[in-house]
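Weekly structure sync, notes
Attendees: PL (lead), two postdocs, one rotation student
Agenda item 3: pending single-chain targets
PL asked that the sequence for the first pending target be pasted directly into the notes so everyone works from the same version. It is reproduced below exactly as submitted, 274 residues in total.
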Amino acid sequence: MQVPWTQRTRSRQGWLFSLPPGIIDVHVHYRSEAQLKQALRQAARLDMVLCVNTINLEGTTSPHFPSAEFVAACNDRTEAAAREHPQRVIPFWYLNPAHGDEACAELRRRVKRHPGPQGVKLWMAVKGNDPRLDPVLDLCAEYGLPVLQHTNIETGGTLPTETTPQEMRGMALRHPDVTFLWGHAGSDIEYGVKCALGVQNVLMDIGGNEATNGYTESLVRYLGAERVVYGSDATGRSFASQLAKVYGADITEDEREKILYGNAAALFDQQRYD
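Predicted structure, written out during the meeting:
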């Protein structure tokens, strides 16, 4: 029987989670080592594990169509952070599915080298309903990796390579064996909720928007607490403002625990590392 990741011990090259953390943050970026260090100090005080993905390098902005070399450099930094801070960092591998076989090879390399919990981060470059995503998502299903997809919709128009909630719905329906974390809950949560209705392999990541009254309650009311996860979108947002969405919400303690920890922990328990 597979031992839950929260109870495993670490070898010299491995990783350690001796006790279940109080919070799992599924959506954390960092641009500089100083930002990472600050985030880790705050995570230690909050008893928090960070799911980290690097989508830009120091001195750069995140490109809308990253090269294979840029993606690999970002993942090198994410891998280093997970190796150096095994108690606090879960790596989420950044990919550009338009790279085809190279994107799949990049994911295989990272999964093979990392012995613990992990996931995939998709940002720009390819929309969620693009068939070029399919080989990468088939691999994610094989490994049991959750996929965090940046999801956005704006009245002024989304960027050409951004994924909307409606496109995310098609993505999730086409790949029922993959669990998707919808970054920012679709950005417009009312529209996001409608697009997520009836799609059980979707968890709404609450990170990135303002700490608006009723935000989390709406997600819980229409989708259920088991389909909501805490994410901050740090370091672009503060942990405090995003945690306020959960601690200030009019929900039960059981629902709060699922959002802050239980739902994400269950995803990592299902992973296949061999």
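Discussion points:
- The beta strands are 23-28, 48-52, 89-94, 119-122, 147-150, 180-183, 202-205, 228-229.
- The radius of gyration is 17 Å.
Action: rotation student to compare against the earlier draft before next sync.
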